[in-house]
Amino acid sequence: MNNPAGGDWGNGILMSRAEYLTAMDFDEAFGLRELRHKLSASIGDTNDAVVSRYSINAEFCYGRNSIEIVRRYLDTGVLEKHYEKHYNNGSCWTKNEGFEFTVLVACVMSLGCKLPETMRSRLQKMQHPAYRNLVLQKHPNSSLAKMKPLAQKQLEQALENYRDGYPYSYGNAPFLEIMSLRNFKPTSAKIRLSRDIKVIELTMPNGVVIPNFVGPPGDEEVGLKPVHPYHVCATCRAGEKAGSKLLVCGGCKDRKYCSKDCQKKHWKTHKAFCKALSPSEMHGFVQGVKHLIIIDDGSLPVFD
Q1: Do 168 and 117 share a structural domain?
Q2: Rounded Cα–Cα distance for residues 275 and 294 (Å)
Q3: Residue 224 confidence (pLDDT)
Q4: 133 and 33 in one domain?
Q5: How far apart are CA 258 and CA 256, in angstroms?
Q6: Residue 296 falls within a domain, yes or no?
């Protein structure tokens, strides 16, 4: 089995480095990092201490009801809007768009999202040998054309058996299980970041260093400052001063900024989330799911 940090870690769907990085891009495109912060703020967790991560790939979701929350969010129409805007234009796709779309559908099925029939039928057509041969001829280096036989079979089975509302399992071994099967016995271990992937470097008794993928990095580990609480500037975290109120985003009527410059800097992070739902729709969604991240006894898990 290949080293996850350096390439693919399995032959199944969503088990390659390219698919992992593409899923991370979708996480940003759907504003899932900011969604986590907003939900955290909605329950009064101003330090963002709730242990969670939201991703379109169910395997990378963690925290209380994280899969259900992401599924509900995408099912509000966010997923369908994204598809209509980026992939349902009827034009000939580039070598990357076909691969990205395949990863998107495979991921949202892992969450159990409502899969629009147009997305399902389009992926079915893309699995046809004639289509794949065409992609290979036009784009010989396309990841879509080079998809492994096992991954293709898994997609075919998923499209045949998938039901909305039921997270789909492709049967792949989890990352932690893959690592445990290797049964390493290192003399020391050090965690570092390698191209947006968290890697643990294991030093073996013979001095050889073996890197292993251990999961996606946290916001702080990649230099991203938490974007909430919502009563301070989203960029520099400055609060309101006497005689000077924070500016409010004209789109979502929610995020605040101390200056136009700070708003401009934060727009790359905020734009997808800002446009996902109207202010009233977002309020309704947050009110409807915030109970899902509160522990029954009223306590919250925190980072050590």
Answers
A1: yes
A2: 27
A3: 63
A4: yes
A5: 7
A6: no
